[in-house]
Amino acid sequence: MNLLILGAPGAGKGTMAQMLQEKLNIPHISTGDIFRYNIKNDTELGRKVKQYIESGALVPDSLTVDLMKDRLQKPDCLKGFLLDGFPRTINQAESLDAILDEMNLNLDNAIYLEVPDEVIIERITGRRVCTECGKTYHIKNNPPIREGLCDVCGKPLIQREDDKEATVIKRLETYHRQTEPLVAYYKNQGKLLVVNGEGSIDSVFQEILRILGVQENDFN
Ligand code: ADP
Ligand code: AMP
User: Residue 32's CB: how many other CB atoms inside 10 A?
Assistant: First the structure.
């Protein structure tokens, strides 16, 4: 399946994409994760994007589209893919259509996780991530077994710099202005699947599987 997951920052895209990646056995490709990896390793790309990300703005389309064009050519995408955090502008969505067209591929569906802003603020400000492997937790909704430490690698959890409240407000504004129009874009293409993202992690995941028509034992 060739899929993307759409929604506000903090809606639960990464959490659901991680679970779907395991269930559907397709790569989870998050532009945010790729940018953070590059910032952490102080690469040329990391140095270019750091300021935009820390201020809650979007990285310029040219950088983001080139990055995704390369990523989609990797052989693991032949079995399908799940994009998370890309596209984030109409221009990026049009570029994605053109890239897939060139590769003779098609997007099957855009899953839209709908979550109201009040819930978003609570989710983002409570988010903690592993400094080593990037796994995501929530201090209340999805806490680690040992406080402040990753269940997978035992390394410390931190709050992302852009998850502090002041930047969150800016990111939400950016989302409503630049990314939300994609809901209509994919609706017009007949590819939009709307999911109410307000339930628990498990119930939202089950709803996504249901709406995709995936049965309990598929892909096992
Ligand atoms: P996004 O990738 O959309 O920015 P995340 O997947 O990182 O969002 O989720 C944001 C925060 O909300 C994380 O701390 C995550 O553990 C938590 N979370 C995700 N989905 C749910 C849910 N359905 N109910 C409650 N908390 C959730
Ligand atoms: P995320 O991890 O998806 O919340 O992304 C973190 C930040 O990375 C965003 O606030 C943007 O600054 C940047 N970013 C991620 N994906 C994109 C994209 N598709 N276009 C532009 N900027 C992006």
Answer: 19
